[in-house]
């Protein structure tokens, strides 16, 4: 059966967030419970994730799938116009504001194109995520939001050290995961991610570290909030991802990336999920124009259920 037609954001402009199943643009549909199981992580991989707070070099997309997504990416690089840009929750053509430190950053593009919509539902992403939301459990996965991070050649910007959940305390409890997908090879020269092993255990009375740079451009700002012991443990390792590979990290893992000094762009797609049962912690906007009353469950049009381990039974 074909998926339902999306509602229109405005005449002639579909809003794909209204379709809570893959459209069939990026991957073949799952047809049996056994199809889901082949995407489960081994126990060793799960243990490694909880030891370090992240997992590197997880295969997610083929080079051909990456190339197709990069065609849609041109919308957000300013190479193609799209009449639905107002659906984006955020879009920054340069979030740093510094022309020598350019960081293109967007949220909400899953609403605009079929490929970015289907990426949200990718089995290679949602099945492992169910194993990594809460230690020792396998949980249903809901969508939080997507992101794009692009660094142009030679002067691509940095992303300051941070914990994702520091920006997400409007949802609770902490049961979130981020998947960073390399759409081309990521190297130290072109600004790949770096992680601090074990930093997912760095908290302040059970809360995340405070945000030290909302524009991501000051790499060293995090040092002002670290303890002396944390500074001694601050030993970054690069995530050298091949095209189509991903890193998975908890919402509490400290990570960041330096600028792109290479002659090629560095473009990535990011998926952010949380466990089913996560609740709103604010009466204000959760994302642009989207509210769920404080204390109520995060669900509805913009936070669909993507995978439930029961589907493997």
Structural commentary:
The protein has helices at residues 33-37, 43-52, 63-73, 114-120, 123-132, 228-232, and strands spanning 7-10, 13-15, 54-59, 90-92, 104-107, 141-151, 159-162, 171-172, 176-182, 193-195, 237-238, 245-250, 255-257, 266-275, 279-280, 305-307. The strands form four sheets. Strands 3, 4, 5, 6, 9, 12, 14 and 16 form an eight-stranded antiparallel β-sheet that branches. The protein has a four-stranded antiparallel β-sheet with strand order 7-13-10-11, with no helix packed on it. Strands 1-2 form a two-stranded antiparallel ribbon. With 313 residues, the chain is α+β, with helices and mostly antiparallel strands. The longest helix has 11 residues, at 63-73. It is built from six helices and 16 strands. The mean pLDDT is 95. It is globular, with a radius of gyration of 19 Å. A hairpin with a 2-residue loop joins strand 1 (7-10) and strand 2 (13-15). Helices cover 15% and strands 23% of the residues. InterPro entries: Phytyl_CoA_dOase-like. Its cofactor is Fe cation. This is Phytanoyl-CoA dioxygenase. GO terms for molecular function: metal ion binding; oxidoreductase activity. It comes from Magallana gigas.
């Amino acid at each position: 059966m074909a998926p339902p037609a999306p509602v229109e954001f405005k005449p002639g402009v579909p809003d794909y967030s209204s379709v809570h199943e893959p459209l069939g643009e990026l991957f073949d549909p799952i047809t049996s419970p056994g199809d889901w199981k082949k995407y489960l992580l081994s126990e060793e991989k799960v243990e490694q994730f909880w030891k370090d707070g992240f997992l590197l070099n997880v295969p997610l997309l083929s080079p051909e799938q990456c190339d197709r997504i990069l065609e849609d990416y041109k919308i957000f690089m300013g190479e193609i116009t799209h009449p639905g840009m107002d659906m984006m929750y955020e879009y920054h053509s340069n979030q740093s504001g510094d022309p020598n430190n350019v960081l293109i950053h967007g949220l909400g593009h899953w609403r605009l194109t079929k490929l970015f919509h289907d990426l949200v539902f990718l089995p290679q992403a949602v099945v492992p995520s169910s194993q990594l939301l809460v230690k020792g459990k396998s949980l249903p996965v809901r969508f939080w939001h997507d992101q794009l991070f692009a660094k142009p050649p030679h002067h691509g910007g940095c992303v300051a050290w941070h914990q994702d959940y520091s920006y997400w305390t409007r949802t609770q409890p902490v049961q979130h995961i981020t998947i960073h997908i390399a759409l081309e090879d990521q190297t130290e020269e072109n600004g790949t991610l770096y992680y601090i092993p074990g930093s997912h255990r760095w908290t302040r009375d059970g809360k995340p570290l405070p945000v030290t740079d909302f524009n991501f451009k000051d790499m060293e700002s995090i040092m002002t909030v670290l303890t002396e012991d944390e500074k001694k443990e601050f030993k970054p390792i690069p995530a050298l991802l091949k095209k189509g590979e991903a890193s998975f990290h908890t919402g509490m893992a400290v990570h960041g990336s330096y600028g792109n000094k290479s002659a090629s762009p560095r473009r990535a797609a990011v998926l952010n999920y949380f466990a089913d049962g996560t609740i709103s912690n604010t009466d204000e906007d959760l994302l642009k124009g989207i509210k769920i009353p404080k204390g109520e469950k995060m669900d509805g049009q913009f936070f669909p259920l993507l995978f439930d381990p029961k589907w493997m039974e």
